Amino acid sequence: xxxxxxxxxxxxGGKVTMAVTGVLLFGFVIAHLLGNLQLFQGPEAINHYAKxxxxxxxxxxxxRIGLLAIFVLHxxxxxxxxxxxxxxxxxxxxxxxxxxxxxxxxxxVLSGLSLLVFVVYHLLHFTFGVTNPDYYAxxxxxxxxxxVYAMVTSSFQVPAIALAYAAFQVVLFLHLSHGIQSxxxxxxxxxARYTKMIKTVSFLLALLIAGGNALLAxxxxxxxxxxxx
Length: 229
Ligand code: HEM
Known about the structure:
By secondary structure, this protein is mainly α. It has a single domain (2-221), classed as 3 helical TM bundles of succinate and fumarate reductases. 78% of the residues lie in helices and 0% in strands. The chain has helices at residues 2-9, 11-36, 43-54, 58-88, 96-100, 103-106, 108-127, 133-137, 148-156, 159-186, 192-221. The longest helix is centred in the first third of the chain and has 31 residues, at 58-88. The termini are far apart. Bound molecules: protoporphyrin IX containing FE. Protoporphyrin IX containing FE (HEM) binds next to helix 2, helix 7, helix 9, helix 10 and helix 11.
């Protein structure tokens, strides 16, 4: 345990922890988006998928607890590394440091903590039904499972909710576009030869994921996806 905690506290251990937890969270976000895109196929597809997930029983709970632990570790390590960086350089560079760094890279802690706010709001919205109990109530469908389609579409027909989700996707885009680059660097892709390719791939992946999420919310708002009353 002491070996593990001293590894975590070391600079390289922190970076490896960020990379491993980051890639697992990245995998979750892709899988979650692919599942949610079934909204475009109509109520049956997404409700069937939701029932399949719910039927995993104990396995689903293991995955949920694992996901939560990974998320907590990612946030805690990110905050620790950023503090350690600041402590190592109490007086910030006047200019040159930030000239090279993109806006996304300088705002990783801020975008990460904003995503934490989003996830808490998102769970209160769809998992616990606290923020919009009326729409959450539509989820109950009895033995057939959950009417996730009705819950999601009735929520996203409300402009404030759909636009809030879309706005958070800008933050997700910023966080992922730099996070994927950092991951590639931790793996050892430092060479200038790869820089352009890594930047392009990170940009495109981040755009696809954040754009896909925003598309879901905005498609309901604009009537492309039909709202189930
Ligand atoms: C428009 C985009 C999104 C839609 C429509 C959506 C929809 C949903 C729904 C319906 C649930 C399940 C609620 C339940 O039945 O318990 C859920 C859970 C969840 N979502 Fe999303 N989501 C979206 C984007 C995101 C994003 C971008 C993230 C992360 C950054 C995220 C993280 C989560 C997490 C962590 C859970 C809980 C998983 C679980 O406990 O099973 N979601 N989402």
